[in-house]
Design a protein that fits this description.
312 residues, six-stranded antiparallel beta sheet, two-stranded antiparallel sheet, 10 strands
């Protein structure tokens, strides 16, 4: 007898080629044969351990966790945007500030160049600051000018007093040693000026050479004996030029000229005011040298001098 139902159907399906000779399966065997197929099929909604409440608690925890993550993302999003904007602003401010500063500096430099180009340039001597000023009958003199004038006046007074003392000492000495009885240099100068005696530097040299060999006498100013300035004074007096018996005063009375323009007959003045003599050209001087010496022509032994010209 052939059985009908699920067992027969399962047998036929499992082994269709042995339908005639197959042994009928029990329900237990049929379930065992179906078990592998059921295990292969994935169970989507299998119940969680602990029952329905445990499953609900797990789903609630996952939902809370997801909600917390969403809230964190919603909170962090504006914070991140704010920080990013701040960083961008910080990076961008420095170039913008530098560009502004550079633009301002360039504009200021352009203005300075315009002022420098359009400005009128002029120079003022330093002496202007020291010069006195006057306007509308009122005058003002700088203190430095007053001080310079006072110092110059004091120096002139001192030089005059020293010259007078020296001249008196020379005159006293000359009286002791002089045997000259002719007119003095001042008298000769007055006479020559009245006679309008022709003056020239070669004539001065010719006259001065006549006294070569005259002994040096301190304070001497006549042919019996000369000192340096007395020699110059006596020779120039013969051409109507009256000079003081003093090297500094003779220097002040003459006109300083470059040595390149100097000619024989001009006067060599030592810069320290200690000596003078006739310039003879080629670095030579004709002078009354010192005690024990006499009028002679010799090389100038120093470069510390300048040339003065009289009669111009």
């Amino acid at each position: 007898m052939t059985q009908t139902g699920s067992a027969a159907d399962d047998q036929t399906t499992a082994n269709p080629t042995n339908t005639a000779n197959a042994t009928p399966l029990t329900r237990r065997a049929a379930r065992q044969n179906e078990a592998p197929a059921r295990r292969i099929t994935p169970v989507r909604d299998a119940p969680l351990p602990g029952g329905r409440r445990a499953a609900q608690a797990a789903r609630a925890a996952e939902s809370a966790k997801a909600s917390s993550s969403a809230r964190k993302r919603r909170f962090l999003a504006p914070v991140v945007l704010t920080v990013a904007a701040g960083m961008f602003g910080t990076v961008a401010v420095a170039p913008a500030f530098a560009a502004t500063q550079q633009t301002g500096s360039t504009a200021a430099e352009a203005q300075r160049q315009v002022r420098a180009t359009e400005a009128q340039q002029f120079s003022v001597s330093d002496a202007v600051a020291l010069a006195g000023t006057a306007r509308d009958g009122y005058g003002a003199t700088a203190q430095s000018t007053l001080d310079a004038e006072a110092a110059q006046k004091a120096a002139a007074e001192q030089a005059a007093a020293q010259a007078a003392a020296t001249q008196a000492a020379r005159a006293q000495t000359a009286k002791q040693y002089s045997s000259y009885s002719g007119p003095s240099a001042d008298q000769i100068a007055t006479t020559a000026a009245a006679a309008n005696t022709p003056f020239s530097l070669p004539a001065v040299v010719a006259t001065a050479k006549q006294y070569i060999g005259t002994p040096y006498v301190f304070g001497g100013a006549d042919p019996s004996g000369f000192d340096c300035s007395g020699y110059i004074m006596y020779v120039y007096a013969q051409y109507g030029i009256s000079l003081a018996h003093s090297v500094p005063l003779q220097d002040a009375a003459g006109t300083t000229i470059p040595e390149s323009q100097a000619q024989p007959g001009d006067v060599v003045i030592f810069n320290d005011g200690s000596h003078d003599g006739f310039y003879m050209g080629n670095g030579m001087i004709m002078d009354a040298p010192k005690p024990g010496g006499s009028v002679s022509i010799r090389p100038i032994w120093t470069s510390n001098y300048h040339i003065v010209r009289f009669g111009i």
